[in-house]
């Protein structure tokens, strides 16, 4: 027989369905009862709900493991139970068309959110996808599709006997028409939507009547492309930069057409996103260094972060309250910890890693002059460990009344730049050679004053000697000794210090720690 109503079934095999339930035993008891609708499954009694859920899930898994694979010729088990999808449209005002099954037959598990029951149903993949929380555990093997065209009743009968699934009943004969003997009416073609394309981009609905048409189509297509990009397994920064460029142009035109200032701001944000993505792509592929530049995966990945690192170095050089390279290095590291909000956590190991000769004295002097505030003593700070980090405060870095401060970067950028500086100063070869704080400070400075290929100075022309000595807080005559330390530790591959400049290049091993000069 054929399907004549939502509750009547066709002549194919009914899909399997069984339920495992978890019910309380009675009032005043924490015990629960596990039952299964499959025949010959005895009830289980457990001491607690947690044990009951574990037993119910184990029982369900055992059934699934022992159950046969989904049968291609089965019709949906939920159809026999008159689920919402299969209800006649006359009983549901919200559905304009009757539900039609489709896809391969699957075994799906539907679980109650409160963990009170678990149901296994053999149904079509479309019903499984439409059931909230359903999880497909196995799928029937694929079967060949019937030939195209309008098969006769005999062909359809042969198809059914061959085991091919027929999820939808044959379309009814239109009112007032009669079917030809031996033939079923031709199925009505699906309606063709001729409306204007609509879509969403950046959480905005593209108006169907937006003019010009080419702008509307571009916005709809861009929305689809961005959603497709989000589904990629691996990012493609070059493609993302191109999409952001197109979005910036489209939103700029959209803003001109509608006069909406928010669209213009969105276009500006897209331009910035395109520039950032393109910069990251060039940096990661090494193409930003020019034709001769090596491909380097740098710790700080964008020119913006490189400029942030330079700004903190310059600030520490201009605002250090104590003389000497050791004080300068400590001030720099404390500034990096408190750069965003004026406060930052610190432990003793952070200071010990700087190789200072007398960190206790420096901390006392910094707190004594008011540049640094700590809740306890210098000894307590030096003895602190990660589980009891000390909250330090640098008053000059606290935000002003308007919320502004000396730096413009946020928490994430601060953490990245601070991690970069710690990575440089604690470089393995510098530690093994017991490099002085002045040598580590010079390494930090040189890392921000070289080209992408490692040549020192803008365009590899070298760095002026006297300003470089001032940045490291040493006399110009002491620079040669520091340069020798960095050469010995393979930080500098080539280095020549003249009366006016330091010329040379950094070794390839430290290129990932460098912040190339923009445009160099």
From TrEMBL:
- Designated name of the protein: Post-SET domain-containing protein
Q: Where is this region: Disordered?
A: 135-203
